[in-house]
Model the fold of this input.
Amino acid sequence: MIDEKRELLANLLCQNRQNGSVSDLPFSLLRNEEDAWTVQSTANSAFANDALGYTIVGSSSAIRSSLGISRPIYCTIPVGTHYQGSQSPYRLPQGLIGAQCELVFTMGASLGADRRPVTREQFCKAVLSYQPAIGLVGRRGHLTGQPHLAAIADFALHVATLVGKHHETASLESLDMLKLRASINGDQVFQAVSGENLADPIDAALWLVNDLVKRRGYVSAGISLQPARSSQSCCKSCLGRNSKSKSPKSGT
Done:
């Protein structure tokens, strides 16, 4: 149950996301993480009727330090913020922080119905396919003295998910050798290799699955899980331009 003041904060977050704007918001109303998650949930419900999955921000300690968050956070991917193979320019909103190279896992089976912790083996068996993507990260409210709580409430800083056309059939063993490259209008802005500067996407997705099972009961088949692999502040140069993320072998 949310009280009137925190519901107002959720509605202001929703309005700023709809308008692509940033303003001073009363994040001081957030007393603890429970408040922050409740505000996020209320803002999500006001912003969109449905969601396609979940995205993680802060998989690595370096990203958490730069964003002022103490542990990984996540949010739903609302309908209307997931762009699949689009060639249309994406206009970036105010408050943009940067971009994450990501993998989007599509789940082919439900997990956690028995409320027990999901293992890595169970997760891998449930994955139907994966796709490389770019996750845009930004704020709807100006920084405050409690950035971790504000980030949770502020849609976990998720702005949009840009997914390429290529769709890899699940062969998760190959992720140990995967290379990811992000490009804007064909110009490479970021490249990374597993085992070097990429976080393990399965570990990140498994953490997310188990937290969702603990909070919400289970993870449904058909949803997308989007763990970040690395972060790069490349977004300020791509206003109104086409962005792509891919593995070099994909040809997308």
